[in-house]
């Protein structure tokens, strides 16, 4: 195993600190990776290093028998090792100059820049709708997974075998020998999650008391706080204070990717397992919780803890903050000096302004908008499924559709095989939709497996039908990890379509939505059809979900939040087959693609959508095993195929007329046919903000 010196000498220095600065910082650093002592990076930490803090460095700092405060600091969750070291370096001398011995947990929380890097700018989408779109994409881009892992690392650090637990035990031993010592904890953002586990663990290990605990813009869930820290307040925690922004200030903060609120709002909507989870640092969450309202009090009267709502410039000098961004609290002089007064009981030396640890964590990323094109398409094809479920014509299908679309002026982006992950597919569709504006014509094409999963939110239930229903799903290449794309996911993105944008889908896989989903009897029919197809040299584009995939899907989705049906869908879908049929591929192409793609160029801008479907159906007349159909708002049938939406039609087709042409109208309230969308942007904003788990019945599974 490499020695700390060797590791430090060879590691790249992302912090920008010199070897001498790292060495000077080492008596104040506990470097953790996945909750355990870190053996690599710019500096490592071992049990011996922690022993040295309490046996050599701290005694050398503290005059004999003096009441030296020990401050244990946990940084936020958007901080790399280099940024954590840099922040510790900039803070350590200030703390020591005020007579405080600082110990910084650099807990290498992982990077959410992978999430924020997936957030495109938006064109044609503004305000709450834009923010909701970013929230949806951040969740799709593994935000929940990354945040969940970070929280697990925080818990593991104070669990048996964790590096922070070892620190707690060494701290307890030191305080026992030096009872005049006071112990303090400061946590910024996700550091509040870290301390929610560390403080109780330290008290259990024998630390008699935390004189103060100060939480800066805490990102901890309210239920975690109430379970872990609140019960200790007034007991093992002598004084607890929270410094965070008012609701109005939170709403004027910004995040990467153009998100128009503070990070805590994004955490609440996108990173926790349950969407819109109450977060302690949000004023509206505290105000909505009677228990927390009683727990905190702005004036400190009859309250167990204090809260300082920034901006607060006057009042007691232990309760001031002028921070106006989530990432700015540990850089804010009034906040940090208030915390120092709480710890030392006296006026601190001026804090000064420091460099921001991670500039992108507190300010929007500057992004170039992609080139504007009025006709854009995303073509998706997946052959490379796990052994036994491979397909052979889907990549060729995507390329065929792409060639035909390019021939009529579309800019085409493709996602093929390994590229076609859940995140990439949703991001691709999201970018297509949110970078569009009035007059644009969009196409989404998919060729691959479909499947079905249990309907978790009840949005597929119909009056008088109590049978178990299901959501239809696409199978991205990484579907076995539960990474399915259900109709609701696409409906939420399509609800963000700006006025006057045409979006047409071509889906070449098994079963498309009709709102019935009477499975598993339906599943048996599809499986039987698939077997018959295999017996005749054809291949069905359908997978029966196995136990592992279903379990992983349920774990990913968490609790459902809405059971409302979409009534403002404006996209239209051409599907390869009826809901109770099988979509086949033969001879290196999907049967639907082989017929429909060749009709695209001669039809674009020249015939109606209904005429295009009629041509496709005519080509299937000799093989009635598969019957393509159209699904969308009724008025779309008489619109020009792949043409801009120049004007809404005033005489939408009736249901019988649609059924006569092989079309299927989108269901609306009380089973009525949905009329032409009215371009009600306010209604779409409300739908997006309410996070509708839409039942977009356009999606084949």
Average of the residue pLDDT scores? 78
Tell me the quaternary state. Answer: single chain
> Segments where pLDDT lies below 50 for 5+ residues?
1-12, 120-125, 354-372, 457-468, 512-537, 559-564, 647-701
The helix-and-strand class reads alpha/beta
Can you put this structure into words, describing what you see?
The model is unreliable at 1-12, 120-125, 354-372, 457-468, 512-537, 559-564 and 647-701 (pLDDT under 50). The radius of gyration is 29 Å and the shape is elongated. Helix 23 links the parallel strand 21 and strand 22 (663-665). The longest helix has 17 residues, at 81-97. The chain is of the alpha/beta class. The protein is 36% helix and 15% strand. The strands form 4 sheets. The protein has a 9-stranded mixed β-sheet with strand order 2-1-4-3-5-6-7-9-8, sandwiched between helices. It has a 7-stranded mixed β-sheet with strand order 11-10-12-16-18-21-22, sandwiched between helices.
